[in-house]
Every structure is written in C-alpha cells, then in structure tokens.
Amino acid sequence: MIKIICLGSIKEKYIQEAIKEYEKRLSKYTKLEIIELKDEKDTANPLKKEKENILKHIHDKDNIVILDIKGQELTSEEFSSFINKELTNNSNITFIIGSSTGLDEEIKEMSNKKISFSKLTFPHQLFRVVLLEQIYRGFKIINNETYHK
C-alpha cells in the first residue's frame, strides 16, 4: 500500500483531474490512499500544528519517506527499485509532502528516507502529480511494461 500525506488543498481542476487519472492507473498495482491535510499557514506556529495533524495519520508500521530538496536524488529506475524493495519488505510506504513552510523537524527525524526529485522548487499541488506519475512509472518498470521511455 502507498499512502501520501500532503498539506494544502488542490483548487485547480486540471490538477485534480491529473491526480484522479494517476489514482485510476495505480489501482492496477497497489492500494493508494491520499490524505490531504490543511495547510496551517495562518497559525502562530504552522509547522507544529501541521506536525500534530500529520501524526494522527502515521502508524507504527508506516515506512515514512519525506520529499525534501535536501534528500537523495534518484533516477526513475532507482526509485522503482526502492518502491519494489520497500513494498516487498514492509508492505507499505508513506510519502509525506510538506507545506510551503516545510516540515517539522520531528517528522523529518521519524522518516526512514528523504528523497529529492530535483533541486528545483515545485508548487506543492503540482508536485503531488509529479510524485504520482513517478510512482506509476516505477510500477511500470517493476512489471517490465512499456511506458517508461
């Protein structure tokens, strides 16, 4: 199972449609759960409040991966191999996409892995689609199916 915890809502219809498309495509390969939490930018300590909300959705068995610009960069093949290995060994991966203010240090310390998709900064809504596409690409590679190139 793959769980994606993300902060902030998707307002753009074209991004919502892209997310739905990848949810449909991924249903062939894995159970997918997307948990969308409120971006707490209007509170005194947004990272603390976001951390509390994230922790409500994390379980002891979760294999936590945060998406962080300082994380390890992987090729699509390496990302595919990571997904395959983790799902074989742990049965689930929980990806966490922080808000525009980042992630609380406690969440970062809980993670089993930090992955960066680029040194570029992406809008959080668009990055959700990028992550889903790469997960889908990973499953296509794992199953030796056409799509990757």
Summarize the structure.
The protein is an alpha/beta fold. The chain has one domain: Alpha/beta knot. The protein contains five helices and five strands.
- Span between termini: 25 Å
Radius of gyration: 15 Å
Helix-strand string: EHEHEHEHEH
Provide the CATH superfamily.
SPOUT methyltransferase, trefoil knot domain
Task: Give the percentage of residues in beta strands.
Answer: 15-25%
Q: What's the arrangement of strands in the largest beta sheet?
A: 2-1-4-3-5
CATH topology name, in short, is Alpha/beta knot
Report the average pLDDT across residues: 93
Report on the structure:
The protein has 149 residues and is α/β, with parallel strands linked by helices. It has one domain (2-142): Alpha/beta knot (3-Layer(aba) Sandwich), CATH 3.40.1280. It has helices spanning 13-26, 46-55, 76-90, 105-110, 124-142; strands at residues 2-7, 32-37, 64-73, 93-97, 113-116. Strand 1, helix 1 and strand 2 (32-37) form a beta-alpha-beta unit. Helix 1 runs parallel beside helix 5 (124-142).
